[in-house]
Amino acid sequence: MNAPAPKNVHLVLRVNGEPQEVSFASYKTLLEVLREEMNLTGTKHGCELGECGACAVLVDGAPVLSCLALALECEGREIETVEGLASGTKLHPLQAAFADCGGSQCGYCTSGMLMTAKALLEREPNPSRERIKEAISGNICRCTGYNQIVEAIEQAAAEIRNSK
Amino acid sequence: MSAEKKRFEVVGQPRRRVDGRGKTTGQARFADDLSLPRMAHCKLLRSPHPHAVIESIDCSRAREYPGVHLVLTGKDFPVPFGIMPVSLDEYALAPERVRHVGDPLAAVIAKDEVTALEAIELIDVRYRKLQTISDPAEALARPEPRIHDYGEQGNIHRNQSYEFGDVEEALARSDYVFEDTFFYQGNTHLPMEQQASLASIEGDGKLLLQTSTQNPHYLHRQLARVLQVPASQVRVIATQNGGGFGGKCDPANHEMVVSKAAMILGRPVKICLTREEVFYQHRGRHPVLMKFRTGVSKDGKLTGMHLQTLLDGGGYGSHGPASTFYTGVLTPVTYELPRFKFEACRVFTNKPPCGPKRGHGTPQPRFGQEVQLDKIAEKLGIDPAELRLGIVTKENALTANWLKVGSTGLAECIRQVVERSGWKEKHRKLPEGRGVGLAASTYMCGAGVSIYWNKMPHSGVQLLLDRSGQVTVLCGATEIGQGSDDVLAAIVAEVLGIGTAEVRVLTGDTGLTPVDLGSYSSRVTVMMGNAALQAATRLREQIAAAAAEKLETLPERVILSRGKVFAAENAAKTMSFIEAVTAAETKFGTLGAVGSYAPPKAPGKYKGAGVGPSPAYSFTACVVEAEVDPKTGWITVPKIWVAHDIGRSINPVHVRGQVIGGVYMGLGEALMEEQAFRRLPEKLSSALVHKIPSMLEYKSLTALDMPEVDVAIVEYPDPNCPFGAKEAGQGPLLPVMPAVANAIYDAVGVRIDEVPITPDKVLAALEKKAKGETPRVGPESFPAVPYPAPTFVLPPWEGGDGDELKGPDGKPVRRTQKEVAAA
Asked: How far is the first Cα of chain A from the last one, in angstroms, to the nearest whole number?
């Protein structure tokens, strides 16, 4: 068998503020490149069809379903994943609130929820309960029944506002 | 325990769960997050036909495809498996027959997923299609072709009948007999994590399977069986489970396949099911048709019940034998029922197999009985809450079928939801289109017997402790998101007077941890907790003995509290926990303790009495408020009140989380969740296929649909449970569906006697109401099921001894109370 010609694209992705060279097949989704090429497995997948929200990451500050985004299209953009949320060993207020309020049970939807909530709080530091529910309505959680997730986001929002 | 602390310091305190940090930083590693050097990827070929004989499989083209390492078929797996010893009816890859669309029959292991998928397309299979058995009516009508060559007869898998006292006699002397049929549609777990498994050969030459499973122990046994290797050569690690709900209880085909492939190839092999495949793996809620004939006195006491159930089991046995029992056996635990006849039948059909889902078999009859009680209350002119308060089972009672109720706070739960919801001001009083409904329930805290017969512990815990002050606790229990790791750490921490942050928890690893049967039947807090309590108490005794010498006091006067160890009579006589451990290690040598737990023997002695007994039962009551739009039939649920008797909360944050999560799943089942099937058009084979194998089309509640849930935690500690703590993982789901149905009746006066309760059904019932017809949608009849003659057991209050009655020839006989007294 002849060695196949290389088909990969080679580029720099900025993830959590750090530029990193990556090489991947051009059809790979951002989800696949994050998880399989960059070993950032904190971003999860629940359907790989854009139906569940588990894979949400931020691209230029907006929540994006990474299973539907081509990694190729993210060149030169700011990608944020759950791995970049904490500052050193200090949890982001959203992470702390999810852990303290029962916002995370199995933890599988948590990364997508956290990133979606982060985008919301950056746009709206003091969202109403309805706005929070709207913001996370594309993120399915099968464990919590959402109540404690909403409470965690409220608590984190208050924490962030008070720390400013 | 000596020198009891006055108050709990860990138990009952709201705190961050021990795995909270890892789950919010993305560090929690789920099976598909794992990768190993030289890892190959596996894909399964699944049947496009619901029922067919595999005439031939030609894998030659797939084997030759570049990048393919291995192709496996049924020939490679001669040994069948199954979660229950009486239903070993599955093969890792179907050898001769496929029994549902999605049944796997071949596997390709290749350098990557894409190559494996391409090679799957190159496998040539010749099928001979067989008659499809699509539903229970067809399964009863067509004994041939048999889907399996075992079972009761034809396509009946399980068929059973029990009678506890003469029910017909009881019904005959009742003031009223209510007869109702209900249908509970099947639905699926829909865990957020798609099942994944990674098999590898470790450096010591042994097989390691890291997999999303709730039951690593049962999987371990079945893997050894299928692979025909000693269990000591196999290690199963249950990775973090991204939701289980019962869907990851059965040993699964893909787990066997990657294990075998790793053994053949000597390299790691991984699989991750697609979301569509998760729907085929299923093992979800059985569709159940039910008929209740219930006798009632004018003052609202139940006199007897004849319950018949018919379960659509799908293509394999799974937990079916247990599921069949559970459609009835817990019914007499909620309300006093002097006599009870229970007939149940599970049939095979050509659909993905049904199995255990949160509540396992119990939500279906709970729905039926609670809706029927609502009808009874209306007919008798009694408030539905008052009716229930008059018949709740009492503490330490025996039921007609010989189950022992322990502590019960059900009456308190009902009072709490009535009070908090403003029930008395709302029921029958809200304007048209708005209503409230009430329901109650019971659930077990662990099955009294193991899935395979043995007299060994159901849970074992090992504790290690050394001069560093670090406490390591090992247990085979499995964290599936419910918080079991936190419960384990909390119980140990409470006994040793430290915080959960000082405890390292290692769970769900058959290579390291003592056997625990797994995360099912709401058993973990009680069984693992009791084992942990025993181990921690043993270790505490050693620490206290050593500390007593240093503190110049008696061991029984030593108190361990908040990281300190001191004498009860003089708090100045104190040392740190680490100093006390050092003293103990000096005195006794290396420290460690084990604890184990097996449930108490159940009072019932009749054959079949093993299903239903539990060390304790949890209780729940629920009020649902609903709004129904009469033009569209659309149902909105603005608020739910629920009260749950947990016995005692180990961590109230997560008890509340389990309760709300159960309510959420119940509300989804009530309103939309549905594992529905359809026939493909004739030109496309007419196959019976899953209607909606995607998360978009399988409707579940989003954050916008989910109402606020008011949770009252009620604590009636049970002496069989660690610190009195009962379960919260399954019970709170149970009353939600009937409470929704009852609320809809209160809102618009129509009875929807089946779930899901969708707008089209509400509209159809409203149309009937407008025409003056019976405003009801639900099953019209119950088929003639050939149930066997019942096993007859006298209830405790009729002089029974818990055993079945037998004639001189040893065959079951049926006798009235009078006849027994005369004999």
From this structure: 63
**Domain limits for position B47:** 39-130+192-243+248-281
Q: What is the DSSP letter of A35?
A: I
Is there a contact between A30 and A74 (Cβ–Cβ < 8 Å)? yes
- How far apart are alpha carbons B427 and B743 in whole angstroms? 9
Give the residue extent of every domain in chain A.
8-84, 93-162
Distance (Å) from the alpha carbon of A127 to chain B's nearest alpha carbon: 15
The burial of B789, by beta-carbon neighbours within 10 Å (0-12 exposed, 13-18 middle, 19 or more buried), is given as: exposed
Does A108 sit within 8 Å of B706, measured CB to CB?
Answer: no
Would you call the peptide bond into B756 cis, given omega within 30 degrees of 0 as the criterion? yes
Q: How many CB atoms lie within 10 A of CB B79?
A: 13
**What's the gap in Å between the CA of B587 and the closest CA on chain A?**
39
Q: Which residues numbered 66-125 in A keep a CB inside 8 Å of some CB on B? A: 81-83, 85-86, 91, 94-96, 98-102, 104-111, 114
- Whether the pLDDT of residue A134 is over 80: the answer is yes
Fold of domain A8-84: Ubiquitin-like (UB roll) (3.10.20)
Quick one: B299 and B427 in the same domain? yes
Phi-psi domain of B522 (left: phi exceeds 0; alpha: psi -120 through 50; beta: other): left
B201 and B126 together in one domain: yes
CATH number at residue B709: 3.30.365.10
Same domain, residue pair B339 and B387: yes
- Shared-domain flag, residues B473 and B501: yes
Q: Which CATH class is domain A93-162?
A: mainly alpha
In-domain check, residue B100: yes
Last residue of a domain, one of B577, B597, B617: B597
Determine which of B30, B189, B192 to mutate to test the interface with A (most A C-beta atoms within 10 Å): B192
pLDDT for residue B810: 79
> What is residue A164's predicted lDDT score, i.e. its pLDDT?
84
- Same domain? For B204 and B105 the reply is yes
Residues B395, B476 within the same domain = no
pLDDT of residue B170: 97
**From start to end of B337-470, where are the E strands?**
340-347, 434-444, 459-465
Chain B residues within an 8 Å CB radius of A41: 26, 29-30, 32-33
Say how many CA atoms lie within 13 Å of B204 toward its Cβ. Answer: 8
Instruction: Estimate to the nearest angstrom the gap between the alpha carbon of B140 and the chain centroid.
Output: 27
Please tell me the distance from the alpha carbon of residue B421 to that of residue B138, in angstroms, as a whole number. 45
Whole-number pLDDT of residue B3: 47
> What residue in B sits closest to A42 (Cα-Cα)?
B26
List the structure tokens of B809.
């020839």
Residues of chain B with pLDDT under 70: 1-6, 816-818, 820-821, 823
Q: How far is it, in rounded angstroms, from Cα B764 to Cα B742?
A: 17
Task: For residue B305, give the H/E element and its range.
Answer: strand B302-312
Residue B79 lies in a domain: yes
Distance (Å, whole) CA B171 – CA B306: 9
In a domain, B139, yes or no: no
Q: Do B720 and B758 belong together in one domain?
A: yes
- Do B502 and B591 belong together in one domain? yes
How far off is chain B from A75, nearest CA to CA, in Å? 23
ipTM: 0.97
Tens of pLDDT, residue by residue over B522-567, are: 999 999 999 999 999 999 999 999 999 999 999 999 999 999 999 9
Give the A:B interface size as CB pairs under 8 Å. Answer: 177
The domain total for chain B is 4
The Cα A130–Cα A127 span in angstroms is 8
